[in-house]
Amino acid sequence: MKKSLTFPLSLLLVEDEKMSQEMLARLLEPRVSRLWIASNGKEALELYQENTPDVVLTDLVMPEMDGMELIERIKGLNPEATVVISTAFYELGFLMRAIELGVFGYLTKPLSFQGLEETLRKCHRRVELLRAHEELEVKNHHLKIAYDQLREAKEQEKELFIYKERYHQSHQEEAFKKQIKLMRSDLSNSYESGIFFNLFYEPLDILSGDAYGSVRLGEGRCLFYAIDAMGKGLSASLASIQSVSFLNYQLRPSKALDEFDFEAYIQAFLSFIRTQLLNNELLSASFILMEEKGEKIRYALFGMPPLWVMDERGKVRELVSNNPPHLSAL
Fold this sequence. Notes:
The chain is of the alpha/beta class. It has helices at residues 18-28, 41-51, 67-77, 92-101, 113-139, 143-182, 234-250, 262-276, and strands at residues 7-14, 32-38, 55-58, 82-87, 105-108, 190-192, 195-197, 208-218, 221-232, 282-291, 296-302, 307-310, 316-319, 326-327. The chain is 43% helix and 26% strand. The longest helix is centred in the middle third of the chain and has 40 residues, at 143-182. InterPro entries: CheY-like_superfamily, PPM-type-like_dom_sf, PPM-type_phosphatase-like_dom, Sig_transdc_resp-reg_receiver, ST_Response_Regulator.
């Protein structure tokens, strides 16, 4: 059995979850020369100012002061501080900000023994290099070591970014598959009441706020809707998934489609989505109801591009948006 190593490092552990804190403390105590423990960012900053540990191992999501603010404060005190993130939170924006701040390493929860020991080994190597660099600066020679250290740090940042980008990409693709599965498309490439329906959907981003639905209501009636949650990424995608799920639920088989009320359907959706949007979000939508075998169209557009419709005489008509985009409840 491989014997665990003890590294000549002082380390500050920042973890608000009690069980995780106790588990990490048991793993770290025999492997570092000095260990301080904090349960939140505010307490951790005080301990860092008092002791200046070699390494800070911190969670991101914590009360009083979160991990990202703690890192910013520590980097303000010591730009060369060796900080490692330990979290199960994968939002790409946070990771990019961590790279910008110069975070040295990243540990994914649940932690593994091998991953933790390898990270300590890398931290020890970096701390030793920093100490050597400080001595060499005082003596004013061997400047090449400083250059090599900078190059290594940049390579580590690049490797961290590439790994997290691939991981995030795979999760985006899985979320997109779920979004596609939720979208109802009764009329795609179909022939209904003398009308051929050809629907095309290709969002620019994997996770986007774009979604649509086409529903066969019976008696020559067809319903179409399109959703555009402004922005991109996870938040916009969730808004569109919430919208599609609600709109489909309102058309569940247990409800009589022959009693479908177009205005009530839209009002129910607006009442629902208004409570789901964040303060900085807005959502555009189109609702189109074709009746009497395509001879009559009812529509409601909320901040969406105009509809182009050709009548039986071949004349193209522009149906412009008749409502503003929808905002969150204040």
